[in-house]
Design goal:
CATH superfamily: Gcn5-related N-acetyltransferase (GNAT)
Helix content: 25-40%
Number of helices: 2
Number of strands: 5
Strand content: 25-35%
Radius of gyration: 13 Å
Order of helices and strands: EEEEHEH
Number of domains: 1
Largest sheet: 5 strands, mixed
CATH topology: Aminopeptidase
């Protein structure tokens, strides 16, 4: 699979992969006190089943970790990814159950 570049589109409050004419995205809300809520993941139908959503989540989690933000995964896809890759629980805000 191709390694896609993660784009933090702060104007739209979302992380993106641009794949041909399609955009796979994870929408977020950032607070002023270092929290990030990942609210919605969307992979266009034409890109489904290629692992693009999982690669997007992995790169977003790495970016959140690098920035030292506390993660609140409201999106079921992101929460499911963290369940399958429990090492990422270390960046989830204390008290948040997945």
């Amino acid at each position: 699979m191709e390694d896609f570049e993660l784009i933090d589109n702060t104007d739209e409050n979302r992380y993106e992969f641009r794949v041909n004419k399609h955009i796979a995205k994870i929408e977020y809300i950032k607070t002023n006190n270092g929290e990030i809520y990942l609210t919605h993941t969307e992979v266009p139908t034409a890109l489904e089943g290629q692992g693009i959503g999982s690669q997007l989540v992995e790169k977003v989690l790495a970016d959140v970790d690098r920035k030292g933000l506390r993660l609140i995964p409201l999106c079921p896809f992101v929460a499911g990814y963290i369940k399958k890759h429990p090492d990422w629980k270390r960046i989830v805000m204390r008290g948040v159950n997945i």
